[in-house]
Each structure stands twice: as C-alpha cells, then as structure tokens.
Amino acid sequence: MLGAIAEGQRAVDGALEEFARILDEVAAMGVVLRGLDLRMVDFPTEVAGVRLYLCWLAGEPTIRYWHGCGEGFSSRRTIEALGLPG
User: Fold this and answer.
1) Residue 56, CB-side half-sphere exposure with 13 Å CA sphere
2) How far apart are CA 18 and CA 44, in angstroms?
C-alpha cells in the first residue's frame, strides 16, 4: 500500500515539474496566461508603435480580440477595431 502511494506521489511530482517547465517556456516567449480556470492567453505585440495584447479565450476559433497592456478582458475589442489596412 505504501509503495503504491509513494509511486503515485512520484508521478504527481513529475507531472508538476513538467507543468512548471512548460509554464516557464511559455512565459519566456512573452505569452501571459491569465488563469488556468479562465483558459485565457494574452500575446504581447506592437501595432503602430503601441504595445498591446492579442487576446484568446479557450473555445474561440481564432485570435480575434485585443486590449491595451493596462486593460483586461472587459476592455477587449475586435482586431478590426484597430483599423489596420487589409
């Protein structure tokens, strides 16, 4: 019984270490995870000299929204609202 518990603990520890490694890799790319429960991701970018985030929420088919760096989810606007040439 104790062997099975120790084996399970080692498996959990290994999974957590791998998860932490992946999170570090994602953060090193500049991607911001906004909470695992929300499953929302912000991708930093720059448009016309202004830094902003492209914003994706799990379930959305593509990245279609953005918000300013000092703003959050409630301030999301469509990429079309940036008024970039086609």
Assistant:
1) 12
2) 24
Helix, strand or coil for residue 75? helix
| Three-class DSSP labels, 10-76 | HHHHHHHHHHHHHHHHHHHCCCEECCCCCCEEEEEEEECCEEEEEEEECCCCCCCEEEECCCCHHHC
Q: What does pTM read for this prediction?
A: 0.71
Q: How far is CA 10 from CA 7, 31, 46, in A?
A: 5, 29, 43
The pLDDT tens digits for 41-73 are 999 999 889 899 999 999 999 999 999 998 988
Cα distance between residue 26 and residue 29, in whole Å: 5
**What single-letter amino acid sits at 46?**
E
